[in-house]
Amino acid sequence: MSTVYDCGQPESRVAGLAAAAGALRAGQLVVLPTDTLYGIGCDAFDANAVQGLLDAKGRGRDMPVPVLVGSWSTIDGLVLSVPHQARSLIEAFWPGGLSIVLPHASSLAWDLGDTRGTVMLRMPLHPVAIELLREVGPMAVSSANRSGHPPATTAAQARDQLGELVPIYLDGGPCEHAVPSTIVDLTGSDPLVLREGAVKLAEITEVLGFDVQLAQ
């Protein structure tokens, strides 16, 4: 049976974070609040848990799972290299609503789906998410909804869709912005915005100092 922890209450928050960390280490799924939408997450290095996440969403491997990190420095161990443009965007928008796609480190023993050698990374601006990430390390996290259904902006909406497939729900209140992250692909010769969301194209252009294209 799943349990919902009210992270607005100090004692419940402590208990919930401990329960979530234990569940993740046991290969289970957790629903957590972020600054954009609620996410369903697992240990990024547990291939069985990642497959369980995809199954819970009703989603195929052709839509690989993004990874959330709890600090700027974590990214260095996850990718082949961090180019100057990535550093500039991280400094400007992390923690926050910007996801960055980079080639992942070939030495990593993970399976996030059919990633074609890349990983999408983000550091969320939410205290509950950050605290959990700093406790357990990088998490594979996707929006907390069944594929084809509206993304959850509250823990209750996530539970309505995912139910007992997730044992731990961390309720951090309604998402203030409820806008998906902006995705910037840095795997090519020029940055490409795959999705414009919480961070606007004009803001990215200002930071990088040149016009950035939006994928058609």
From TrEMBL:
The keyword Transferase applies. Belongs to the SUA5 family. Keywords: ATP-binding, Cytoplasm, Nucleotide-binding, Nucleotidyltransferase, Transferase, tRNA processing. Residues 14-199 form the YrdC-like domain. Gene3D superfamilies: DHBP synthase. One of its GO terms (cellular component) is cytoplasm. It comes from Crossiella cryophila. GO terms for biological process: regulation of translational fidelity; tRNA processing. The keyword Transferase applies. It is found in: Cytoplasm. Its main location: cytoplasm. PANTHER family: SUA5, THREONYLCARBAMOYL-AMP SYNTHASE. This is L-threonylcarbamoyladenylate synthase. GO terms for molecular function: ATP binding; double-stranded RNA binding; L-threonylcarbamoyladenylate synthase; tRNA binding. Its EC number is 2.7.7.87.
